[in-house]
Amino acid sequence: MKNASRLALCLALLWAQTAAAHHSFDAEFDRNKPVTLTGSVTRVDWGNPHIWVFMDVKDETGKVSNWGVEGGAPNALFRNGWRKDSLKVGDTITVEGFRGRDGSQRANANRVLLPDGRRVFAGSSVGGK
């Protein structure tokens, strides 16, 4: 029984650490500020708990800004048809998502139009609207 209690305590601590590391959508992004970004991929970081795609986007004045776009967990994206080679540096993509609360060039991706013409769910925490 002593070992079972220790195991339960260890599992509870691991769960608490994982839950604390993850953020809620509403803490970082604003579901009332949809954004559509079209630009050139500059970097893709595949990692847990979310992938990040960085892209150069021109605004209406022609100024280029580098945006960081959060996607879903790698495993969820694989189930939705993504592969590690779905995006490459230099690819032009369009991201539909939600802007960061802080007004910076950060967004949470809901859907992405890939270079091959496929429109895929990007694993947004807000859901597959």
How much of the polypeptide forms β-strand, as a percent range? Answer: 35-45%
Which CATH first-tier class would you pick? Answer: Mainly Beta
Structural class: alpha+beta
Q: Distance N terminus to C terminus?
A: 47 Å
Task: Please explain how this structure is put together.
This protein has 129 residues and is an alpha+beta fold. The protein has a single domain, classed as OB fold (Dihydrolipoamide Acetyltransferase, E2P), CATH 2.40.50. Helix content is 23%, strand content 40%. The protein has three helices and six strands, in the order H-H-E-E-E-H-E-E-E. The protein has a five-stranded mixed beta barrel. It is globular. About 9% of the residues have low confidence.
Salient structural properties:
single chain, alpha+beta, OB fold (Dihydrolipoamide Acetyltransferase, E2P), 5-stranded mixed β-barrel, 23% helix
Question: How are the SSEs ordered, and which strands pair?
Answer:
Layout lengths: L1 H20 L3 H4 E17 L6 E7 L5 E7 L3 H6 L12 E9 L5 E8 L5 E3 L8
Parallel strand pairs: 3-5
Antiparallel strand pairs: 1-2, 1-4, 2-3, 4-5, 5-6
Brief overview:
By secondary structure, this protein is α+β, with helices and mostly antiparallel strands. It contains three helices and six strands; from the N terminus they run ααβββαβββ.
